[in-house]
Amino acid sequence: MKRTMSKEALERLQAELHELETKARPDIIKRIKEARELGDLSENAEYHSAREEQGRIEAKIRDLTARLKVTEVGEVVDDGIVSHGKIVTFKQGGGGEPRTYLYAEREEARDGLDALSPESPMGKALAGAKVGDKVSYEAPAGTFEIEVIDVRT
Fold first, then answer.
1. How many structural domains are present in the chain?
2. Among 44, 46, 87, 153, which residue has the fewest nearby CB atoms (within 10 Å)?
3. Cα dist from 146 to 47, 61, 73, 80, 125, whole Å
């Protein structure tokens, strides 16, 4: 399944991956080598710390690589329909306070707005909705209904 993201957010992820692959990975390999030279690995805190850090770096590289493979740049169109990159205001059924989110991946959060992932249950329910639409979604705490109040770029 393809994921859509702004060009800027995609470039940030690509830069982060490049940094991990070209700087962090070689640095941690060097730290592991230096720690090995200190002797007995069973009681070598520097070695174990460096190996744990290496695991975190490699996991992040795998995660970013996988995400970038399924991500494409999407243009934001001002058509009043909930889709990637739009700012969406809605309220929970029963008259809750209006809440505003950026309908996008978390890497795109900006302007003091939290991101609402299109992959979340609420995000899936909102996809394609317009002002005035009421949609419902299933969450661990039950079924919720929300009403779209505003959609803008």
1. 2
2. 153
3. 52, 37, 28, 17, 9
